[in-house]
């Protein structure tokens, strides 16, 4: 050690002379610290902050994040975990791109593969919402995403296979597992729970009333009748956001569109096979014009909004215009300039589907012509599944958004309104809400379902459901939600609950366990806009530090399926991306949940990084 009384400039010259003379130091780490002290170079520890939902908002995300952070630390990274309330987390992730990494679920349903377009295409990397929240940019993947939209048969399958392989290698996100969605239900009031898809409004619309036999009075003579009996479907959820905001375009408030899907009708619903069947429309005809698909869509007769205004083709055309630009060009003369088009603000939800539409035109009150971009008719049909919005309500929301009287020109009121009370055309209408506590919908007996033939409807829906209202109650924990069902105070846990509640469900008389695989996987998502996460080799190495089998066993209690592709559950996954014991592209660098530190360090060194006393560093 030098004389502490020696001036700093003299000490620095002494150190420089030592380096020039080739002084031998004990370790490379000491050499780097000495170089940093002399100002020759400096190094910065590599850190990754992981944001996720708190335990009361998601039964698994926080535990996954904590496990991943431990594995990163074992490899020499500085890793932190920050739980963030749902709407704030989604604002930071989806609107402001303020994150290094996040643990959560991708909400997209990817049955036909085209959902990957919005999730990964670089054109969406600067837009808000779930479309490419990673800021991923890969020109080869962009080309293949465009190719799969326009190709058919084996050519499309090959394009999708190439996309999946590149994503598995470059890791814009590390796929963890597809969870089983666990719910507690009561079978003493309604049936059909086990055939329902709770990720779609159709699941709730397909429930049946319990058959009471020839005499309802005799059947209830020895029991205590429930108030209103089966007039109300009682659901309990742990997410308060739907009680506060019913804007179908608000990305930070919408995990799924189940409740808003009961308020707003789409032209058609996607089926389990990946096709689309008519709903608000009574049919459509596709043709090819100029090498691109075009659809003439006919609406059902006598449709009306919940405020009794008629639903028309003009509302459909308006919806597609609004989704492509929530400001509608901000013109007052009905014209649009090139500058207006350049400043378009697309709705952050439904972006992948709305991007398929070039324009839409109302031909008469019941007929709309939808013209599409370069894609096949099968892919174009996905655009018919967006919710149709009433023009007379939403047009006035295309002006600049304002908060506290201050206008924000980069968006419109359509994205910031809480939309309470909403005006839709769905089978249920808004009745009342208590923000953070309760939400009540009333059945619309004038809905077309009252007259529709079951043969005309998708899924197991055969008309209006037997219940007259839906009563949604918010509680703070999964255990509380299950207890409400067990005590007879609710019919279903509307949000999925964690595996730790299964023993409670199993012990409760009259309560059934419903388990179905979710189409929305848990991922560790990376912000590819921030170094070192801009480096695909760095992200690839991070992917090697996730033991998916251990997470499934320890965090999900076995109620999840590890996977290497987001298209698991379809026939589009190539054989070389099937998960067989470990990830086929980024296998875990260790065993039984323990990182092999030497192997991890070697991998990071191969990726161009260094270590200083066991800490991963990069040169400034």
From TrEMBL:
GO process terms (BP): peptide transport
Molecular function GO terms recorded: peptide transmembrane transporter activity
Top-level taxon: Archaea
A Pfam family assignment: SBP_bac_5
CDD domains: PBP2_NikA_DppA_OppA_like
Domain Solute-binding protein family: 276-615
InterPro entries named in the record: SBP_5, SBP_5_dom, TAT_signal
Keywords: Signal, Transport
Family from the record: Belongs to the bacterial solute-binding protein 5 family.
Official protein name in the record: ABC transporter substrate-binding protein
């Amino acid at each position: 050690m030098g004389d502490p009384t020696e001036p700093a400039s003299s000490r620095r010259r002494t150190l420089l002379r030592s380096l020039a003379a080739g002084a031998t130091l004990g370790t490379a780490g000491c050499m780097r610290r000495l170089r940093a002290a002399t100002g020759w170079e400096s190094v910065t520890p590599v850190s990754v902050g992981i944001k996720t939902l708190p335990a009361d908002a998601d039964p698994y995300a926080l535990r996954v994040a904590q496990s991943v952070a431990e594995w990163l630390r074992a490899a020499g990274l500085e890793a932190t975990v920050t739980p963030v309330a749902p709407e704030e987390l989604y604002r930071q992730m989806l609107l402001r791109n303020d994150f290094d990494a996040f643990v959560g679920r991708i909400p997209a349903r990817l049955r036909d593969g085209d959902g990957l377009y919005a999730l990964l295409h670089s054109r969406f990397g600067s837009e808000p919402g779930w479309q490419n929240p990673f800021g991923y940019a890969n020109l080869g993947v962009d080309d293949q995403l465009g190719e799969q939209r326009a190709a058919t048969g084996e050519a499309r399958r090959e394009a999708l296979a190439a996309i999946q392989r590149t994503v598995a290698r470059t890791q814009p996100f590390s796929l963890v597992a597809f969870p089983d969605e666990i719910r507690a239900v009561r079978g003493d009031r309604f049936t059909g729970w086990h055939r329902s898809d709770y990720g779609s409004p159709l699941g709730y619309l397909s429930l049946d009333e319990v058959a009471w036999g020839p005499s309802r009075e005799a059947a209830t003579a020895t029991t205590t009748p429930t108030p209103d009996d089966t007039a109300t479907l009682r659901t309990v959820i742990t997410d308060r956001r739907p009680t506060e905001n019913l804007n179908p375009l608000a990305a930070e408030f919408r995990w799924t569109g189940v409740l808003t899907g009961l308020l707003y009708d789409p032209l058609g619903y996607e089926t389990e096979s990946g096709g689309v069947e008519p709903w608000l429309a009574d049919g459509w005809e596709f043709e090819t014009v100029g090498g691109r698909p075009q659809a003439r869509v006919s609406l059902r007769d006598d449709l009306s909004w919940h405020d009794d205004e008629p639903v028309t083709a003009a509302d459909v055309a308006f919806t597609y215009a609004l989704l492509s630009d929530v400001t509608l060009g901000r013109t007052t003369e009905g014209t649009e300039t090139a500058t207006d088009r350049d400043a378009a603000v697309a709705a952050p939800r439904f972006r992948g589907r709305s991007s398929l539409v070039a324009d839409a035109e109302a031909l008469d009150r019941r007929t709309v012509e939808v013209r599409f971009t370069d894609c096949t008719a099968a892919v174009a049909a996905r655009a018919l599944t967006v919710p149709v919005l009433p023009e007379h309500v939403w047009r006035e929301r295309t002006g600049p958004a304002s908060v506290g009287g201050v206008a924000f020109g980069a968006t419109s009121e359509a994205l910031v309104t809480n939309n309470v009370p909403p005006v839709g055309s769905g089978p249920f209408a808004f009745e009342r809400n208590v923000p953070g506590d309760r939400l009540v919908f009333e059945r619309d007996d004038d809905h077309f379902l009252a007259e529709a033939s079951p043969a005309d409807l998708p899924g197991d829906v055969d008309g209006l459901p037997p219940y007259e209202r839906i009563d949604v109650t918010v509680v703070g924990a999964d255990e509380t939600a299950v207890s409400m069902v067990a005590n007879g105070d609710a019919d279903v846990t509307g949000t999925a609950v964690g595996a730790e509640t299964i023993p409670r469900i199993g012990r409760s008389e009259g309560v059934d366990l419903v388990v179905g695989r979710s189409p929305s996987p848990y991922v560790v998502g990376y912000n590819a806009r921030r170094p070192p996460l801009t480096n695909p080799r760095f992200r690839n190495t991070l992917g090697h530090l996730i033991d998916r089998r251990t997470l499934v066993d320890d965090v999900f209690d076995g109620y999840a399926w590890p996977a290497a592709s987001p298209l698991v559950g379809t026939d589009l996954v190539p054989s070389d991306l099937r998960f067989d014991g470990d990830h086929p592209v980024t296998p875990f660098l260790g065993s039984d949940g323990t990182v092999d530190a030497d192997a991890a360090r070697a991998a990071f060194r191969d990726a161009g990084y260094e270590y200083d006393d066991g800490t991963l560093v990069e040169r400034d």
